[in-house]
Amino acid sequence: MSNPAGIDALAFAGPAGFVEMTDLASARGVDPGKYLKGLGQRRMAIASPCEDTVTMAADAAARALHGFDIDPAEIGTLIVGTETGVDHSKPVAVYVHELLGLDQRCRTFETKHACYGAMAGLTASIDWIGSGRARGRKALVIASDIARYGLNTAGEPTQGAGAVAMVVSENPRLLSIDPTRIGDYTRQVMDFWRPLYSKYAFADGHYSIQCYLDALTGARQDAVGERSDLLAELGACLYHVPFVKMAFKAHQRQLEMERGGPLSKDHNESWRLLTDSYQRLAAPWLGLNAEIGNIYTGSLFLALIDLLRQAAESLADREVSLFSYGSGCGATFCIGRIGEDAARWREALDPADQLAARRRLSIDEYETLITATEQADTADQLDPSSYGLNGGLYYVGTRDHCRQYSRS
Fold first, then answer.
1. Most CB within 10 Å of its CB: which of 23, 121, 152, 189?
2. pLDDT digits over 125-142, tens only?
């Protein structure tokens, strides 16, 4: 690839509180193994009423720009991918544009397609750079979401919140994307949706898993054709993970495509091959997803952060696959290459210090936050300190129907 575009900077930001899955299991009278092993989740990030899609997006973006020494004046396109926007008309991206102090000549918009919005923004940015319109500038693509399913619901243990910001440029330091191996898939399905009148989503869980796997099949074929040897060449496989165990199902589908048929636990040799492949290519990069939970558009890119903080040096100049799925449905499968010097930026992208500073919420505190969040959009005034928050950017209420943000 000549002058490849891709991810030049990467950073995560999330809320200050989390729930331990063992605490939730105990409160709901559920065997902890259902969450820890069945879903693969250990904790889930919980946003307070003062932490929303805008605040997390702006925080992640500021970390990416500062950590990778990028001048905000270099940003010529800003895209926020989200399915939990704060307004039916006004994009999250415009709030973030102002909060970051970006140039007025910066093209700014929001993308929505369930969990696919950030990947749509990434590939659109690559096309923008490739077309020549960037004129040397960079794109800032942010995935920011809060996964909410309500108390005592089937989806409750698959909640989460967070944002991942990516700066996209020519000759990227972290990951270049091969434009000749980007495959797409779209089909109208009702596997997951949230009507305008509902704060919470509706989902057909088993059907959604099948739609995800069908989209993986179609997008991979569009990207690389009927290859039977791709996994042998890759250094890692990254997937959209609404819950960690979904990555195993996705990796199984990839291996089945290469072997030309289904794999069964009853066939010991083929199942061992699947397990070994999964443990080598996918499982090591799922720790952050297990700690933070479902962050919708950012889930795939959270796995990328985990890979880069652990293995950027050992996988330098190696190819990896990325698969993004959004219900409804749309998907992209692409091939990227880890930068030769990506390991130099481990400290800038690693969110370990952020996660260590989080506060463990009791179930009573968690339930109080969830209930309060349901009324936050219409609150006249919110006090971040009442939720133990300080030193950051927060949503502080709505006045005259306009959302207000403040740094404390």
1. 121
2. 999 999 999 999 999 999
Residue with tokens 């959270």: 302
The question of whether 367 is a catalytic residue gets the answer no
Among left, alpha and beta (phi > 0; psi -120 to 50; other), residue 160 is left
* pTM of the complete model: 0.97
Q: For residues 131 and 61, what is the distance between their CA atoms, to the nearest angstrom?
A: 24
Q: How far apart are CA 146 and CA 17, in angstroms?
A: 13
Give the pLDDT of residue 4: 86
DSSP 105: T
Q: How far apart are CA 332 and CA 119, in angstroms?
A: 7
Among the CATH numbers 3.40.50.11810, 3.40.50.1820, 3.40.47.10, 3.40.50.2300, which is that of 5-407? Answer: 3.40.47.10
Cβ count within 10 A of residue 2:
3
Per DSSP (E only), the strands in 227-318 are 236-239
- From the list 94, 84, 101, the residue with the least C-alpha distance to 161 is 84
Q: Considering the candidates 20, 74, 83, 156, report the single residue annotated as catalytic.
A: 83
As a whole number of angstroms, the distance between CA 139 and CA 30 comes to 45
pLDDT grade, residue 408 (50/70/90)? confident
Strands 319-326 and 175-186 come out as unpaired
Radius of gyration of the chain (CA): 20
240 is catalytic: yes
- Helices 246-259 and 205-224: crossing angle in degrees, nearest 10, is 40
Among 97, 113, 240, 251, which one carries the catalytic annotation? 240
Measured distance CA(357)–CA(254) in Å, rounded: 37
Give the start-end residues of each E strand in 51-154.
Answer: 75-81, 107-111, 138-147
Closest Cα partner for 339 from 329, 328, 349? 349
Q: One of 106, 115, 211, 329 is an active-site residue; which one?
A: 115
Q: Which tokens go with 220?
A: 């991979």
Q: 115 catalytic, yes or no?
A: yes
| 351-379: average pLDDT | 96
Q: Which helix (H) or strand (E) holds 46?
A: strand 43-46
State which amino acid sits at residue 258: E
Q: How far is 398 from 252, CA to CA, in rounded Å?
A: 47
Give me the residues paired with residue 142 across strands.
80, 165
What is the C-alpha separation between 116 and 330, in angstroms, rounded? 7
Dist. CA 9–CA 168, nearest whole Å: 7
